Amino acid sequence: MTIDAVRPTRRNGETIALGTTAAGGPVSGHRSYALKIDHLSKRYGRTTVLDDLNFVVQPGRVTGFLGPNGAGKSTAMKILLGLAAADRGEATIGGLRYRDLPDPARTVGVVLEPNAFHPGRSGRNHLLVLADAADIPTGRVDEMLELVGIAAAAHKHVGTYSLGMRQRLGLAAALLGEPQVLVLDEPGNGLDPQGILTLRTLLRAHAANGGTVFVSSHLLDEVEHLADDLVVVNEGRLVRTGSLRDLQQAATLIRTDSPEVVRDLVVSAGGTARLMGGDRVVVRGMSIDDIGERAFDAGVVLHELSPGAGSLEELFLAWTSETPPLDPASVEREVGAS
After folding, report:
1. How far is the C-alpha of 101 from the C-alpha of 202, rounded, in Å?
2. Using an 8 Å Cβ cutoff, are 106 and 30 in contact?
3. E strands within the chain?
4. DSSP label at residue 152
5. Which residues, in sequence order, are bridge partners of residue 305?
């Protein structure tokens, strides 16, 4: 697989993605599209699914969309794609709602459901139908089947496909129109290690060529290898957003024989703390100097006090179980600056 990673440039204030990839990323002269989730709220009956959700997904980067089951990720993606209506707020792609895009099939590639295929059709036939509907050359179908690694099964009925093969077919469908934007809901489910590597390579190449990649996943180890930025939601509200590197470095790992005492000290000072088992505590919202001084004043012995603590899994558990939702006003300032 050959990947030509070329940095995007700007022309008359508009981001232009130069170059192309085997993944069908943006070609020369195509726009790049930011995704804006603007104060979205959504209720189903008495259940609040989204509560003033607010963030921006930037082009040229892979953004991981994380949250526990029921956090509202799929609903937010469906509103972005015009498959559900918000009660309040708006979701736009390059400043337009999905239904207002002049050529949505060539602008946004989508993976939402691995079973969204007729079991009696072949994989190739399914892509041919999509290509015909969007006026895409049929030669593109075979290119995509080869790219995602299911060319040998192209003429088999989709009903005989494994989950991983259906995921590969879904990715081929998403890439069919050479879109600038990819919106993918759990695209790694059911993939074997080689499939995960292929997916990662395709998405990284797409972003490197100026494309926008927005992907939800519960595979936190893979997100840690894949994502440039994170958006983390819990109970329909935003709890963290920013670059993965910055978010990982914003935590501090403490090892002490008195973890509960340290937790109480941190919480009383306005920080957040999560007991990680044994003698470990992950702290956020306080500087290392402040933590050390407060522990010294309290007579607590620390065996370790180090920045950039914890795997993404550890941080995710802390963000979604003990961290209060992010103040929407702080995100408004960030969105307004973008």
Report:
1. 24
2. no
3. 9-11, 14-17, 30-31, 35-44, 47-57, 62-66, 88-93, 108-111, 181-185, 212-216, 229-234, 237-243, 251-256, 272-275, 280-284, 302-307
4. G
5. 254
CA pair distance 49, 129, nearest whole angstrom: 34
Mean pLDDT by 10 residues, the chain (338 residues): 34 36 42 93 94 96 95 96 96 96 93 84 95 93 95 95 93 94 93 92 94 94 93 94 85 92 93 87 88 95 82 82 48 39
Q: Where are any strands of DSSP class E within 119-219?
A: 181-185, 212-216
The token duo for 247 is: 């978010």
Among residues 112, 95, 84, 100, the alpha carbon closest in space to that of 36 is found at 95
Q: At what angle do helices 193-208 and 163-175 cross, to 10 degrees?
A: 10
Confirm whether pTM is higher than 0.90.
Answer: no
Query: Which of these, 190, 196, 171, lies nearest to 110 by C-alpha position?
Result: 171
Alpha-carbon gap, residue 209 to 182, rounded angstroms: 13
Residue pointed to by tokens 């690694």: 149
Contact at 8 Å (CB) between 33 and 93? yes
pLDDT at 321: 76
Distance CA 89, CA 40 (A): 4
pLDDT at 125: 96
Fill in the DSSP letter of residue 27.
P
Residue 323: per-residue pLDDT: 42
